[in-house]
Design a protein that fits this description.
- By secondary structure, the protein is an alpha+beta fold.
- The chain has one domain: Aminopeptidase.
- The protein is 28% helix and 27% strand.
- It has a five-stranded antiparallel sheet with strand order 1-2-3-4-5, with helices on both faces. Strands 6-8-7 form a three-stranded antiparallel sheet, covered by helices on one side.
- The two termini are 24 Å apart.
- About 7% of the residues have low confidence.
- It comes from Mangrovicoccus algicola.
Length: 180
């Protein structure tokens, strides 16, 4: 997975060292950090710089941009993961970015994709449902943010379930085209 990935509204590009500052500032926001598992707390510039360095090696992590403005990140290095700055919530951006990564993954012959979300994160539940993920069960993991165990819903998307469709799952291409 090399080179930028383009969608109708977004550019999914490799992380650059200059991204560390805004990444640290956004993830440090409680409304973002609370839904991320496996992310150190507190989260600062050093942690963001390390994430950028790892991202440049892994290739399956991307910065989400719209009109040149960075909005968040999406990753398929492991289970599908994504986060957005709150100003970008509710616009279909996470769904659009994740769909582009999934499309590329399956086009390159990739296998089934795992995902999970913290119980209570209704926005992520909706994104993963729109993408066609199917629930497998629940798990409990430690959250650095909460400094306590949290419950996850675990999901899976098989290549044969992509692209999503059918009466209960409209294709991603039919999602409303909203500006970022």
């Amino acid at each position: 997975m090399t080179g930028p990935i383009l969608t109708r509204r977004l550019v999914l590009r490799q992380a650059q060292p200059a991204d560390a500052g805004w990444i640290a500032a956004q993830i440090a926001r409680p409304e973002v950090h609370r839904w991320l598992r496996g992310v150190p707390c507190p989260y600062g510039h050093d942690e963001a710089a390390e994430w950028v360095l790892q991202s440049r090696r892994l290739k399956a992590r991307r910065i989400i941009e719209c009109g040149g403005a960075p909005l968040g990140a999406v990753s398929l290095s492991g289970p599908l993961g994504y986060w957005l700055r709150p100003e970008a919530w509710g616009q279909g951006i996470a769904t659009e970015a994740a769909a582009a990564m999934i499309e590329r993954h399956f086009a390159e012959g990739g296998g089934a994709i795992g995902a999970d979300y913290l119980v209570g994160n209704a926005a992520s539940a909706r994104v993963l449902d729109r993408l066609g993920f199917r629930a497998l069960g629940r798990d409990v993991v430690h959250s650095e943010y909460w400094r306590a165990p949290v419950e996850l819903v675990c999901l899976r998307l098989a290549p044969g379930d992509w692209p999503p469709g059918g009466p209960a799952r409209p294709p991603v291409a039919s999602l409303p085209d909203r500006p970022c």
